[in-house]
Amino acid sequence: MSAADLMSVLLAKYLRYDFDAPDTPTNDRLVFSKGHASTLLYAMFRAAGAISDEELLTYRQLDSMLEGHPTPLIPWVDVATGSLGQGLPLGGGMAIAGKYLDRLPYRVWVLCGDSETAEGSVWEAFQHASHYELDNLTAIFDINRLGQRGPTMDEWQLDHYRARAEAFGWHAIEIDGHDVEAIDEAYAEATATTGRPTVVIARTIKGKGVKAVENKEGWHGKPLDDPEAAIEELGGLRNITVDVATPPTGDPHRFEAGRLELPRYEIGSEVATRKAYGEALAAVGSARGDVVAVDGEVSNSTFAEIFKEAHPERYFEMYIAEQQMAAAAVGLQVRGYRVFASSFAAFHSRAYDFIRMAAISRATISLSGSHAGISIGEDGPSQMALEDMAALRAVHSSTVLHPCDANQTAQLVVAMASLDGISYIRTLRPNTPVVYGPDEEFPIGGSKVLRNGEEVTIVGCGITVHEALKAADQLDGARVIDCYSIKPIDGATLAAAARETGKLVVVEDHWPEGGLGEAVLAALAEQGVSCEFRHLAVREMPRSGKPDELLARYGIDAAAIVKAVRH
Amino acid sequence: MSAADLMSVLLAKYLRYDFDAPDTPTNDRLVFSKGHASTLLYAMFRAAGAISDEELLTYRQLDSMLEGHPTPLIPWVDVATGSLGQGLPLGGGMAIAGKYLDRLPYRVWVLCGDSETAEGSVWEAFQHASHYELDNLTAIFDINRLGQRGPTMDEWQLDHYRARAEAFGWHAIEIDGHDVEAIDEAYAEATATTGRPTVVIARTIKGKGVKAVENKEGWHGKPLDDPEAAIEELGGLRNITVDVATPPTGDPHRFEAGRLELPRYEIGSEVATRKAYGEALAAVGSARGDVVAVDGEVSNSTFAEIFKEAHPERYFEMYIAEQQMAAAAVGLQVRGYRVFASSFAAFHSRAYDFIRMAAISRATISLSGSHAGISIGEDGPSQMALEDMAALRAVHSSTVLHPCDANQTAQLVVAMASLDGISYIRTLRPNTPVVYGPDEEFPIGGSKVLRNGEEVTIVGCGITVHEALKAADQLDGARVIDCYSIKPIDGATLAAAARETGKLVVVEDHWPEGGLGEAVLAALAEQGVSCEFRHLAVREMPRSGKPDELLARYGIDAAAIVKAVRH
């Protein structure tokens, strides 16, 4: 109820949206960052004639698209919200798409709660939106003073919000959020402001219009005691309909595309998989005009800089703000772009809630995590991802890939560009030998038997494939499986190996939990196969040191594999 | 080199620290948020006489405590850094400890890079430090204009930083970071400022003093081409030593402690485990003066509010800022407090990088995640943690617990208060029947056989224990194991069940990856036992609906268990 006046004016006069054709490229985007205000959003759909009274009353019932918090099951919702502080960074991504990629005049409107501005991600969004001069983005702050549990830190001190917004380079307008003329003027001013985004900071009253709850604590997310009386107080049953303006016509800009000419690496040469990622991504970008890259200020390490150099118009620097980076990726894919977001694998953990929510948004994004595991060496554990495969496997719709060589990396990058859902590729800092030819194929869900053997099977991925090969040289009858696709995993090949060799050693540069080892066990269990099993993984907090020293110290090198096999 | 002058003045005149006795409660705290400046920090230790030249030269060698980024393996380092944007929120936690708990006059100094201010967590720290009036906290911004890959968004526009800091309620001082008198004056002003924290915003030059690299791109984290010439240019080999001021004497405040009187719940009554968490935590807080609670603006849902009411001096509201909440917990534990940080289980994912880093800090913190899984019902998937067990299992030093009833919850909360490392308790929104008596014991790493049977074993945790019991009522010879300790897990009991019943059905309210099912498989593999295995978990993106409807729809209710067993 605090935001009803704000949204009424938006719907009646400013939003340009064809509810019959939500895919219209010129449609404005509306994001309810305060997803718990879903009743207001759904009432807007009802007023716009998009849904019926009957459908509105299916709210929160199983099989209704009108869930407790909005998700893209609803045709007019682009992104899921409900984890706070995400709407504005998501809207920033959409606004980047509009201004720099689509080059269409649509506007992105984001309704934010005041409580959620405590999330740092909101200020990441402020800084990036200002940096990218997103004058097509308007944030609407519903300053109703009350969070779920009590007052916010700033209550109705609108000047605090204004000072922060201005300090981050935004145009800010303070209004009474229940004065419809003031709202109208503010939106007019926002749409007329160029070169920077605008925030409308509206002083509102929680529960506005119903005295029993107005500005009172203890009513967050609770039904009214007397809803009939509240309806009377609000003016009685009405049947308000709104003619929503349709957007102008227009077609999105299209970037040129050509032939796919993947880099080709010679067998036996030494190349870092992160380098191959950058080179392959640049090649995919040349073949597909819809491919876009973002990076978190480490493009010279992730090699996203190779893409940037090749396709500067489709590269967006996200600086050290991984939450905004993930959100931008999700916002960009709303408009159909295939976004690759890269950072050190360890630092995607900063955006884990955004990745989780991306899955609820039914988003398609690709993540690249470089510098995985202890093989990075001297920089130490803060830079070593050892939980990333576990975290990313436990995301709905995810694909988790970990190539061991450059040609494999290149092929997997191509595959990722056509995968649905959240895909993740884990790459390595050090150079590794190229073991596959450039024309080898690597299906998602597949694996490669690199050595045949009948006595024991060694399963690795990434750096440990090379250790497994070295170990196999010292053993008789060792089969080596390169399990580059961790999710989905090649259960049939693993089951056959378990049956045929009776012994499996899985070795991974990752904590023991939730990574390759447990993925293999789950696959074997599903196949109904069991065998002797040894699991080599990083079990102590690693230190700084040379990569080889660390692989030895933490028991995932060739010597450790040989020892495990002999045991 | 950009921050060397800033740190020289600090070490020579302002820092009060007894390097011979790092545990002195009145010691100032120094946090290098830009952990990649570790060479500067270690040089300070050398200048202070804490380490020798020989030890300094072990930098980044295996077994040296002088890792690539600082960790608490070093006695004078409280927290690990290296994931950027974490030092200031961590320092905020230490400053809260100083001002509100220890009540000692120590000061917290945090050196931040400019690049890392793009992280939203920095602005969470700004807002919270101002809200808590942390005048014992000083941030030092080393504005050297250059990140790893190129210029920052704001370069040398110091007024941008100043406006933001002031807008968040801080005192801000702009200086030339190579003017030692200006630095001196700024620190004097910072220490004299009351009621709010101060940030010293210092314009500096990356590579200051060595013309070959000064203010040049492409030199981040790289060794110099000619280090000998650089030493000459910097003034030649010297042997600078600094007498660091020792802190005043003083003892921390101690909070009263009494007897532990845990809540007791009657078998058969219906209580939400989240409620039992709040009640137990309040009781533990009465028994132990070192127990502290923080919550992310959902204390009326997590029931941390019960602790807050009982121990208001030891409760700190962290609003909707889960990164700051986790960082505050880590900062507080530096001073020995046992911190319980609560939010919805889903929203700890927002702080996953902080939790990962907490493990590298060798921190002891307890996390409580309520509203886990689809059993929350209508609020929908954004509020349902379905990845939390996977994520938290893949944290070094972690313990993962998931009680199914109120008495079990209470006992586990007591146990958590004495556990080392990162402990996590997962609680439920709905009421569940009390199945254990109040004096039952629940060792960490244990499990409970709730029903004996020889035909099949059903393994659950949390809500699925109750579904397993209902299923067992419809089956002959079903053993039911309540696997409340997911990490460490009771491998012996599970192995015995596998051997004795030959069939295991694991059922969990979680994605299939990385949770209870895979933990059980890993335990069986380690025990060298195998059996028929079925795994029931949430395999589709859930919708809004009633809890019972959802448990049925997604195949983790009693009927699904019965079906799996019969299959």
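Chain B touches chain A through 105 residues (CB under 8 Å).
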